[in-house]
TrEMBL record:
<dbReference type="InterPro" id="IPR016039">
    <property type="entry name" value="Thiolase-like"/>
</dbReference>
<dbReference type="Pfam" id="PF22691">
    <property type="entry name" value="Thiolase_C_1"/>
</dbReference>
<keyword id="KW-0012">Acyltransferase</keyword>
<feature type="domain" description="Thiolase C-terminal">
    <location>
        <begin position="285"/>
        <end position="402"/>
    </location>
</feature>
<dbReference type="GO" id="GO:0003988">
    <property type="term" value="F:acetyl-CoA C-acyltransferase activity"/>
</dbReference>
<dbReference type="Pfam" id="PF00108">
    <property type="entry name" value="Thiolase_N"/>
</dbReference>
<protein>
    <submittedName>
        <fullName>3-ketoacyl-CoA thiolase</fullName>
        <ecNumber>2.3.1.16</ecNumber>
    </submittedName>
</protein>
<keyword id="KW-0808">Transferase</keyword>
<feature type="domain" description="Thiolase N-terminal">
    <location>
        <begin position="6"/>
        <end position="247"/>
    </location>
</feature>
<dbReference type="InterPro" id="IPR055140">
    <property type="entry name" value="Thiolase_C_2"/>
</dbReference>
<dbReference type="InterPro" id="IPR020616">
    <property type="entry name" value="Thiolase_N"/>
</dbReference>
<dbReference type="InterPro" id="IPR002155">
    <property type="entry name" value="Thiolase"/>
</dbReference>
Length: 412
């Protein structure tokens, strides 16, 4: 969908374990930072879209999650829309908020993503992921993995996910094995993704993990499920991110400097049946976003994509059009997706190193890219950044993500 909404302010917390902060406090911190960045007051916000995925499972807060956060900040009497769409929750919130600004309904709106995943009972954290599949499927989450195995012509004899790991690690492992079989990709290639993102994350003061890792260290780390080792899997985390969007009229009135515009944002869902042209929901969302913005992948300055596992990043290179199918590992090995390369990817550290508080991830990508386009990213700044893509997926049905959002931002 073509958009015309401007980013007036962004804010986010550090990602990681915030045992001393409530979910409400995390969200409020990010929102206040975004409002301060925009030079606006809470009373200026005309509507809010609040993205959260797992509070119902982890903290027990259901139904009025956004209202609870905003009322605690003294914000009321406005429309508040609670958005839950798995890991794509806050990117969906942003897409919907931008659409309403583009349509002319509001001049100043808020999109926020927030999550607390750490809990003393680890089964609650993992339970949040188990619910992001079709729970009425006779075999539940395990059937997703089996279907992927059949589609790739691979055996699947693992006992399945346990209390030690999320079901999505099994899904990502099967994706990896399918790519390895089809294109000769190796575990070393996946480890190279982690090494790159660890380097990027070391430059990001808000990242959950900031230590650098070598390819050898990644390969020698604890095995999770073949071929994934622990650093190849995104961690659980707590955190929040917020974005204030304004209309073109309001942007002119405010005299916004460093004008960053949401040029396109597309929400797409998976489907049943085969379609050779649209073979993945991520590819479909990206192609629609490129078309709406009138750009192509070769025009991009940088990308923040959904690297919930190391193999996910290599696969995404291909369906986002950064390279041809099967060439993702070579794109990485050539240094093209590293800071200073042709198309830097996940300069924030990505989900693997910045962290993945699932409801906060989509808005956090927008925060990172906005700062890149403003030239405010310090040691990890992409030189001359003018056009950026955010890609955020969520859930799993069949052999693909349940939902994906692709958003294109441009500096004017």
């Amino acid at each position: 969908m073509k958009m015309n909404a401007y980013v007036a302010g962004v804010g986010m917390t550090t990602f990681g374990k915030h045992a001393d902060k409530t979910l409400k406090a995390l969200a409020a911190g990010a929102i206040r930072a975004a409002l301060d960045d925009a030079g606006l007051d809470a009373a200026d916000v005309q509507a809010a879209w609040m993205g959260n995925a797992a509070a119902g499972v982890v903290t027990g807060q259901e139904m009025i999650r956004g209202e609870v956060v905003l009322r605690g900040m003294g914000i009321g009497a406005i429309p508040v829309v609670n958005v839950e769409n798995a890991c794509a929750s806050s990117s969906t919130a942003l897409q919907q908020a931008a659409a309403m600004v583009t349509a002319g309904y509001y001049d100043i709106v808020l999109a926020c993503g927030y999550e607390k995943l750490f809990h003393e009972d680890k089964s609650r954290s993992l339970g949040a992921f188990l619910s992001a599949v079709d729970v009425e499927d006779p075999e539940g989450a395990l059937n997703v993995v089996k279907r992927m195995a059949r589609a790739a012509g691979l055996p699947y004899e693992d006992a399945g996910p346990s209390a030690a790991r999320s079901v999505f690690m099994d899904i990502y492992a099967m994706m990896a094995r399918g790519h390895m079989k089809a294109y000769g990709t190796t575990a070393e290639d996946f480890a190279r993704v982690v090494e790159k993102n660890a380097f990027h994350g070391s430059l990001n003061p808000r990242a959950q993990f900031r230590e650098r890792l070598t390819v050898e260290q990644v390969l020698q780390s604890r095995a999770i499920v073949d071929p994934l080792t622990l650093p190849m899997c995104s961690p659980i985390g707590d955190g929040a991110a917020a974005v204030v969007l304004v209309s073109p009229r309001k942007a002119r009135e405010m005299g916004l400097r460093h004008r960053v515009r949401i040029a396109a944002s597309v929400l797409a869902t998976g489907w049943d049946g085969s379609d050779e042209e649209h073979d993945s929901v991520g590819g479909l969302a990206a192609r629609r976003a490129y078309a709406a913005a009138g750009v192509g992948p070769d025009d991009l300055s940088c990308v923040e994509l959904h690297d919930a596992s190391a193999p996910s990043e290599i696969l995404a290179y291909e369906y986002l059009g950064l390279c041809a199918p099967g060439e993702g590992a070579a794109l990485l090995a050539g240094g093209h997706t590293r800071l200073g390369g042709r198309i830097p990817v996940n300069v924030s550290g990505g989900l693997l190193r910045k962290g993945h508080p699932i409801g906060a991830t989509g808005c956090a990508q927008i925060v990172e890219l906005t700062e890149q386009l403003r030239g405010q990213s310090g040691a990890r700044q992409v030189a001359g950044a003018r056009l950026a893509l955010a890609h955020n997926g969520g859930g799993a049905i069949g052999t693909d993500a349940a939902a994906t959002v692709a958003t294109i931002l441009e500096r004017e």
